Amino acid sequence: MQEYTTKKTYRICADVGLLFVALIWGLTFPVIKIALNNLSPFAFNTIRFTIASILFLPVLIALKTKFDGKALANGFKIGIFVFLGYTLQTLGLDYTTATNAGFITSLYVVFTPIIAFLIYKTSFGLKDVISTILAFVGLFLLSGYSGFNIGDILILMCAIAFATEISMISHYSKTSNPTMLAFIQILVVAILSFPVSLFTTVKFNINHDVINALIVTAILATVVAKFMQNWLQKFTMPSDAAVIFSMEGVFSHIFAILMLNEILSFNQYIGAALVVLAVIIVSMK
Fold this sequence. Notes:
The structure is a single chain. With 285 residues, the protein is mostly helical. It has one domain. The chain has twelve helices and no strands. The protein has helices spanning 2-35, 41-62, 69-93, 98-105, 108-120, 126-142, 150-172, 178-200, 208-232, 238-245, 247-260, 266-283. Helix 10 (238-245) runs antiparallel to helix 12 (266-283). The longest helix is centred in the N-terminal third of the chain and has 34 residues, at 2-35.
């Protein structure tokens, strides 16, 4: 009885912790959108992922992570799609709302089984088909029937890039050190963003909005949230995590209301709900 109570307590604490992770991820959308008024997208990502890479080094040392040539090669390949994902997301936020960006990005969960099936011939079941249909109906309603703007399209491409990243991680983490894989991915984004930022930076004003965004994205969302996710998920059920992470889009909208005064129409709220439902269905075992 005591063991059951202890496990239940761990599960509740883990669920609360994962909800905080989803909250952090949701917060990133409006804070990045605000920061882009003062800093160009590639410059922002260069600084963000350079900070995250530096903060990751003590973790590698503490875990006594050995250099792994296979992880380096595989991490670089995955890192290209991580770079594409965050680049498309940051560029898209310049042209669409933080709310749309949050909900559309969360569709990487729905796209992952499709990408994994196309690349690695993994199973693709009925629930994946249903989720895909729900997702696109939700996106249609979320667009307000007027079609996607360029920002929505960029964010949709970002979700596909993240889905490819997750499929590749599932494949390569079986043969490579996962900690080294994660570090290489973060480092690759910083390295690839830097040269592009030299030719595309037209805004470079470091103020409190930019600093706040870097704290949220580089420290909280990239380092702290990732470690919390990896550590806490072993204490809870996959179904719990699926429902909790689907709240990322919801939190992005809540923060967008508070920080940017973004409001959806009734039909757009229905679309957002369908997107969340699609994410929950495809995630649950």
